[in-house]
Structure formats: structure tokens, C-alpha cells
Amino acid sequence: MAYTPEKPRTARSSEELRSTVPGWGVDLDPAVRPSVPKEVRQETGAHWDFPERQPELFPREKSTEHKFLTPVFGTAQPLRGLSGAIRRYAYRYSEARTAHWLLLMAGDRVDVLESRMGAALSGRPDNVFAETGVAREFENHAYRTRFGQHRADLKHQPLDLVLWAAPYLALAGGVYLAIKAFDGRDR
Description:
The chain is an all-alpha fold. The chain has a domain of about 60 residues. The chain contains 6 helices and no strands. Helix 3 packs antiparallel against helix 4. The mean pLDDT is about 80.
């Protein structure tokens, strides 16, 4: 479906619907339809029927539901690395498929891991305690406020610790295995 000002004809005809659906068409009178003012084509002063297209300098991911990219699209965060490959692969599936969204979420998680590994390898690792606020839990009795208050977040608090620590444990394990492999090669 193209991005044009004309409303596409995707529905069945009124006569067909009236014969198959009981009560269909009771709101056809424009006087009782709340959406009528929105459907009237008004003169807006726009000087184009289809906006000028932004140049596509490199291949972009595009939903399978559309023929082409929207006239304007973001280029601030181009895809890169393994996370980019996962996200590109996600666009082979329709947005109605669970696989599309699961792959996009997996790409986000891999991007976080790639960023943390890149920061550690560049000599400027993330300051875990300052950035996550974990140290703040133990200041001014903040941790004590979680108990006796019937807070819903207590149920997933152990899982939060695992989710917070898992990427760092994976990174530490990867560094350990790399050092072990490198050390084994020298002998």
C-alpha cells in the first residue's frame, strides 16, 4: 500500500456487507457519523500529493507490509555488527508474526552486550554501580523501605539481580575463556 492522500479501497461494497451482516449500515447517514469531518478532504496548503523522498544512501530495513520505505526515515542509528544482522533478519517476517518482534528484542539485547564489550575492550568499561543505581540501595536505608510495604516489585527482585548481573558475568566469562585460549596457544 503506497503512502498517498487517496483512501485505498480495501473493504467490501456496502451492498455486499448489508446482505451478509445483520444491522450493517445503520451509521451510513453522515449526520450520525462522528468521523465524517475527518474524511472530508480539506485544503491544507500542502504543495504536494506525495512528499519528496529522502535519498536512501544504504539499504534500509523495511516492513513486509509496505511496498517501499516511508518518504522520510531515521538514519541516526545505523545497524551494525551481529545485532544489526539479527535486526535485518527480523524484517523478513511480517510485523504480525511473533518471530519479527522476538528477533528485534534479541537484537537489542545483543546490541547491549556488544556495547558493553566494546567499552571494556576500549579501556573505558561501564561504571556498573553508578549507572544502575545499585549502590544507592544501601544508602539512607533505601533497601529497608522495600519490606513491610506490600510492594509488588519484591516478587521479581531476585530476577532483577540476575538480569542485571548476567551480561557482566557473560562478559567476564568470555574474557576468561579468551585469556585461557590465548595462554594455551603460547605453550
